[in-house]
Amino acid sequence: MLQLASDHIDSWYASGLTFKWQGNDIFYRDFGDGAPMLMVHGFPTAGCDWAGIAAKLDRQFRLIVPDLLDYGWSRNPSGTTWHIHDQADMLEALLEELGVTACHLVVHDVGDTVGQELIARHDAGALTFAAMEREGKVIEQCHKWLTAASKAGSVHEDEAFRCFADAFAQI
Predict the structure, then answer these.
(1) What are phi and psi of 26, to 5 degrees?
(2) Residues in contact with 46: Cβ distance below 8 Å, sequence separation at least 6, in sequence order
(3) pTM of the entire structure?
């Protein structure tokens, strides 16, 4: 993921919300217009990783961007060890709290594993929401572009964001 300047991080967190889950304050952002899109970050970072891409998607999607338990501003005061299924439980509870019954699912790194758990629950009929996009078309398209641009030595942050935004616009 791309690095953000500290003023962007401060701005990201200043406009967020918290949700109480099993005694923990879970930080999340909920903004934008359109079909809901849950964006789950990777290790060892936080939801603010998505800030640059989110700024290009919020006119097309309602973005729900949490910090997973024990990441970013989702603190773990008890020191409890959280597992992938716990992260998935928390995300289900957050979406239920927000009244979301179906959403696009965008994941990265450890978020991939959490996303796989959510999809497995969906396939087993045990998920409280439906993942609407899960075929990897966006990542495949962007991966091809980024690979070609890297070989040419011409990867620029704005172009990478534009690639993702264009790909998401086709969903």
Answers:
(1) -100, 120
(2) 27, 67, 68, 71, 72, 73, 74
(3) 0.75
